[in-house]
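P.,

For your records, the input lines for the assembly:
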Amino acid sequence: MAARRTKAALPAPALLEWIMGGLGLLIVLAVLGVIGAGALGPRAPAAPEARLVDARPAAAGWLAEVEVSNTGDRTAAAVRIEGRLGADTAAATLDYLPARGRETVFLRFEQDPRGAVELRVSGWSEP
Amino acid sequence: MTVSARIDPARERAYAKDLARAFGGALLFSLPLLMTMEMWWFGFILEPGRLAVFLLAALPLLLGLAFYAGFSAEHRGLGHALLDTLVALAVGFLTAAAVLGLLGVLEAGAPARQIAGQLTLQAVAGAMGALLAGRQLSAGRDEIGDEAEATYPGELFLMVAGALFLILNLAPTEEMVLIAYRMSPIHVIALLLASIVLLHAVVYSIGFAGQEEQGRPVTAFFHYTLPGYALVLLVALYVLWVFGRTDGQGPGETLDAMVVLAFPGSLGAAAARLLV
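Structure tokens returned:
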């Protein structure tokens, strides 16, 4: 299999091939850039925070829509979110809260939670 | 190589056909991983450094596969293998993005890092599938690829590629570590021996390019089976490390998990000759 003979016998790659190859190069460089920035930069520990987005009456009591966001650069697992409204408490758990990501959980209370609810993220584990 | 000034419609059409087959291969080979939830989670759980290593290490591997089994019917040595590698990665990333989008795994508001991580893991498996597609999905076109000319290091490389492919498909699940926990030392040794016997049986019965090994099982054992199994174990350790399965594990447990993964890995290494 002489390389010279092969090269002479075969036509140049199709234009479509160059386009797809260029696209592949662009995607790989972009992905490496995004991942590399995360790998080389400082990595703050996971920092989940909960805040009330909305509340609406439901069949039994009130539903509080809570947005949990992670401002850290590490993912948190088994994130437990607790809400307290007077003597009334509610809790929910998130499997994962990605680094720089946000998730929504719902907590159920007897009364309208707006203004009075105390929300806190009580704990999480490293994945 | 230069882009020719005029576009040949027949050549473009033929290449579009190759490309469609590459997408088919990527879909076929990466679908099990695309529908595994641990793979979605790995997108944000894995250390970014390890993810970058995984993508960078995949490049020479894909180049080697492109060289031995590229999906385009026309084969032009290393330069063309490089172009094939980039096209395969484009196919892998596009397939992963399309399927994960279709399945509702990709979230619109997710951070770029998470999406990049999720796509990278899948795209490498998809790119391997795209490169193997030329071999697997083109019935009767046996002129594709150079694997018949593979040298001894080339044969070992193909074994590594085959092992990585199967290990990658199994390693994401919890079961691999669970199996390792459950096994007694006797089980581990038995599985290790079974893997080597299996690898040797397939390697020897299919036969490698170095046909002089045929009829000399002991020579083949020391030339291919033993170094092959050692490489499979290293591939298993590498994948466990990338997926963070070695963190916080004692050396004993890691070794057990390596042997567990090396079982499908051996099968992949042995079958590399069938697939590639």
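Two observations worth noting. DSSP finds ten helices and no strands in chain B. Chain B has two domains: 11-149, 150-276.

Regards
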